[in-house]
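This follows on from our talk about sequence and fold. Go ahead and set the record down below:
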Amino acid sequence: MPIEYQSFLAFHEIVKGEVAPAGLAERLVPYFRDQVGNALADIQTLIPWTREMNVDFHLKSGVNEFCATSIFQGPVGKVTQLFAYKAGSDCKKYYYKRVSTAEMECWIERQRCALCDAGNPPSSNIYESPYCNYLIGGAEACETPYLTDEEDDCRFKSLDDDDRIFAVGPDYKIYAAPRFPCCYILALQWQGVRRKWLDSYYVPVDQQIREAVVNYVEAKVAKKQRDFTAKREYEDDYTVNLRTIKYRYGDEQNPEAKRDCSTAIEQLMSAVIPAYETPFYGPASGCIVTGDTEVDLQQVYSSDTPPTQPDDPQQAALWYPLLGGTVLQWSISTQSWV
């Protein structure tokens, strides 16, 4: 089953349906929800690859704006990329380039309107005289007297990639400039451990991760019920779950292809494809095994360098280097050592 994203609310309901602590469901609702979140945080802490798959979405209603900059609370983790897109009508992603907080401060300072009185309503053109030191909600910035959707959208899409920038402040606030347009969504991908789970957050999950969360929560509920035997059994199952998923994504996505030179693959090839035969040499026995047939060798040589040809070039032969190295076989068809 591949990794898929579910909302935390939907994931919580699935886990709840599988655990369903009889007689304690009502009294343990807050506790149960906390343990589902704790299980996901625990898995992210212990399994490195699960920390790379966090994604957050931000709407206009969830950000503030100041000097044409969208400001919102970011995650406690490493931000890998930030981009804006318009759902349902434009598949293009408009990426922001990460810069330092000092560069972002300079950008904001350049947007300030030196002639504007902060006590009066701000100008309608946010790119030339933005808000005059006002901090307003993102949804409010989509209303009069600010830019219309069309003006905002057109100006934003015409920018070069390097003209869209973002910075992460010391308080984990994210500053994205210029502000993303009205009716757009801001997508944030990041690496780290998510320790707070809201209903709308997305959970990267598959069947194995779901089973691990179930066993984690079962162990916590059993502890609450003082059933310590069941608690230990669920903890043992949870440990097995962690071992199972530990290397899954990393191994599946490893771009480094490794060659299998083991005898096992040779035997497999011979079994699956009868025409594929690989010789196995045995210097002690002086024979060559091809498939199921053993051919006795009368011509076996061992020296610093192989002879020009065996005594009888029409019969099989082997040569072993005295100081170790590659064993050569005489090819009757090509009349050469191979």
Q: What stands out?
A: The mean pLDDT is 79. Helices lie at 8-19, 29-46, 101-111, 149-157, 207-224, 228-245, 248-252, 263-272. The chain has two domains: 1-258, 275-337. The chain has eight helices and 18 strands.
